[in-house]
Design goal:
This protein has two domains: about 90 residues, Four Helix Bundle (Hemerythrin (Met), subunit A) (Up-down Bundle), CATH 1.20.120.140; about 190 residues, 3-Layer(aba) Sandwich (Rossmann fold). With about 325 residues, the chain is an alpha/beta fold. It is a peripheral membrane protein.
């Protein structure tokens, strides 16, 4: 199965096991959201200004973000004005419809835009993000999924400022049976990227994934470093990288927004992966980030297993988010 076929397969509805993982991964977000929502509507029969004010607070506290929350509230206000009367019993359904429509309008988050250009071989994926967001683990899981689908993968251990990052990537490579190009710690990350891309070409690989330093040091340094990595890769493949994937930790809520802002200022981020949604009540961050940055959310992490790094399917996400026990 080639990379293009791999993603076409992922466009299909989630398999039962994947859907169960998604439901489980969003449990804490649902519990927090619906428990608050239940308190708002108790004893009330209609959606009035007080209900909307409290709903606004709930959405913001669920890390949907202020701008996206305001959009959602305005949409509901328009429906209240149009229909003259909406009951609190209808609120779940209305919210679900408006959030689904908001995500649908953001075509950049469509799963069919997943980062495969079938004419690019090897496909060069550069991964960025701060330390602790699950960047190296995301690379390992991605590499494993591509490998399992029959693709030839090469990894470049370009986060040379942390020995743990290099060692972790090498462990993933050993576990999956994928070559990892590394020069050890405190070496030039651009040199690692160059060698990884060169080896991927020589080995006729389908995809090469390049890790980068997980530091938000000064913007100038970060920009220079990422620009240098791009330049040296382009000596081998002129249009590399074909994708720049920013990994964000969903459990940090608003910090994820800030990191997205910082990285999009210094490099052209073309895709997002939002990790660690299991174990947090901040799953609303996926809605806000998708809406505000207009950059495809292509992966979400909903558990520890390799397959728990899922291609983001907004329909399935909304279904799980509003699925009551």
């Amino acid at each position: 199965m080639g990379l293009f076929d791999f993603f076409k397969k992922k466009e299909a509805p989630l398999a039962q096991e994947e859907k169960e993982s998604l439901d489980k991964g969003l449990e804490k977000t649902k519990e927090g959201f619906f428990s608050k929502l239940s308190r708002v509507v108790v004893g009330k029969s209609k959606v009035d200004e007080d209900v909307l004010d409290e709903l606004e607070e709930i959405l913001i506290s669920s890390d949907v973000g202020v701008e996206t929350t305001i959009k959602i509230i305005r949409r509901i206000e328009d429906r209240v004005a149009k229909d003259k009367f909406l009951t609190t019993n209808e609120l779940d359904g209305i919210l679900r419809e408006e959030i689904a429509e908001l995500l649908a309008e953001n075509k950049s988050s469509d799963v069919e835009n997943a980062f495969i250009k079938s004419d690019k071989k090897p496909f060069v994926l550069m991964v960025v993000g701060v330390n602790g967001v699950g960047k190296t683990t995301t690379i390992g899981k991605l590499a494993s999924q591509f490998h399992q689908a029959g693709n030839k993968v090469v990894l470049g251990a370009g986060d040379t400022f942390r020995a743990a990052a290099v060692d972790q990537l090498k462990l993933w490579g050993q576990r999956v049976g994928i070559p990892v190009i590394d020069h050890g710690m405190n070496t030039d990350p651009a040199s690692v990227a160059y060698d990884a891309v060169k080896q991927a070409v020589e080995q006729d690989a389908d995809i090469v994934i390049i890790d980068t330093a997980g530091r938000l040091h000064t913007k100038v340094n970060l920009m220079n470093e990422l620009s240098k990595i791009k330049r040296v890769m382009q000596k081998v493949i002129p249009d590399a990288p074909h994708e720049v994937l920013l990994v964000l930790d969903g459990s940090t809520g608003q910090n994820a927004f800030i990191q997205a802002q910082e990285f999009t200022k210094v490099t052209e981020v073309t895709a997002l992966a939002i990790t660690k949604l299991d174990g947090t009540a901040k799953g609303g961050v996926v809605i806000g980030i998708s809406d505000q940055f207009k950059i495809p959310v292509k992966y979400i992490g909903v558990g520890e297993k390799i397959e728990d790094l899922q291609v983001f399917n907004k329909k399935e996400f909304v279904d799980s988010l509003f699925k009551r026990k």
